[in-house]
Recover the amino acids of this structure.
DNA sequence: TCGAACCCTCACATCAATGTGAAGGTCTAC
DNA sequence: GTAGACCTTCACATTGATGTGAGGGTTCGA
C-alpha cells in the first residue's frame, strides 16, 4: 500500500509516517517511481510506534526496543548487545514507574468523578450551590 | 522554603519551577523582597506535577485536573463545571489507554529480557554466536 | 491531453518543555 | 563594605514531535 492508505488506516499524517521512517522506526520499500510501498504489517507497526510514543518514549528509545517486540515471537538474541540490554532494563523500570503514576492519578480522577456523580445524583438540578465549599486541612 | 531548596528537594530546575508557576500548576507566596516562598506541600505538588507531565499530560490539562486531586480528600464540587467533568472523563479514558499500552509493551520487554537471560544462562560466555538468527514468518 | 489526486523532497513554522545567560537586587558572613 | 550565594525578570536557544506549504513528478480517468 502507499503512504496515503497507511496514513488513513493508522490515523497518522503522511508527514509523521515519513518522520517515523526518517527516525528508523518503520521501513518502506520503494516503487520504481520512488513512491513508498508498505506491507500489511506496517499498520500494526505504526500503531505500536504511536502507542509507545504516546506512552512517552522518545523515538530514539523506541527504535532500540522495537526489534525486541516483533510480534511473531522472534527470538533473535544475537544482536542484543549488553548496552542495549541495559537500556531495556532501564526503560522497563521507567515504564513501570510511569504506569504506576498514571494509574494512581487515574484512580484519583475516577474517585473524584464518582464522588461528583454521587453528589449530582443526590442533589438534582436547581439545588442551590454553596458559594465556596469545604477547604482542606491536613497537610501532605 | 525558597526556590533553591524546592528545586533540590524535587530534583527540578529553578527554571522549571518558575515555568510551572507561570502555567498555573503551582503557586508561591512572595516575601517582602520578592522572593518566592513555598510551603511543605509544594514538594508533593511538584512531584505530582512532574509525574503527570511524565505521564504525558500537557500542562494545560494538568492545571485543570490538579485541583481535583488535592490529597486531603477535599470534596469541593461547586466549581466542577460540566465542561471540566467532560475533560476529566476524556482524560481518564486516555490515561487508561495509555497505561494499558504502556503495560503491554512493558510486559513484552520484560518477556524479552527474561528470554535473553535464560539464553545467556544456558550459553555462558564464549559460546559462538550465530551470525544471523531466526527470522519471522507469520504476519501481523 | 488535461485535471485531480496522488506521490516526492526540502525547508521553514510551531508548540511544549526545557536550558542558558544577561542584568540586576538581596542577604550573609567575613 | 565587599564577595559570594542566593533571588528576580526577560529573552533568546534548543529539542522532539508535529504542521504546512512550495516546487515538482506520476497516475489515472474523463
Amino acid at each position: 500500500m502507499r503512504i496515503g492508505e497507511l496514513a488513513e488506516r493508522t490515523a497518522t499524517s503522511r508527514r509523521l509516517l515519513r518522520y517515523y521512517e526518517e527516525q528508523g522506526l518503520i521501513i518502506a520499500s520503494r516503487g520504481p517511481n520512488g513512491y513508498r510501498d508498505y506491507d500489511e504489517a506496517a499498520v500494526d507497526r505504526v500503531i505500536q510506534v504511536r502507542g509507545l510514543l504516546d506512552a512517552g518514549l522518545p523515538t530514539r528509545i523506541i527504535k532500540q526496543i522495537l526489534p525486541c517486540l516483533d510480534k511473531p515471537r522472534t527470538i533473535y538474541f544475537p544482536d542484543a548487545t549488553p548496552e542495549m540490554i541495559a537500556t531495556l532494563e532501564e526503560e522497563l523500570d521507567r515504564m513501570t514507574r510511569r504506569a504506576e503514576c498514571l494509574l494512581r492519578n487515574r484512580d484519583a480522577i475516577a474517585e473524584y468523578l464518582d464522588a461528583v456523580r454521587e453528589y449530582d445524583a443526590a442533589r438534582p438540578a436547581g439545588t442551590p450551590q454553596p458559594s465556596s465549599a469545604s477547604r482542606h486541612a491536613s497537610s501532605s
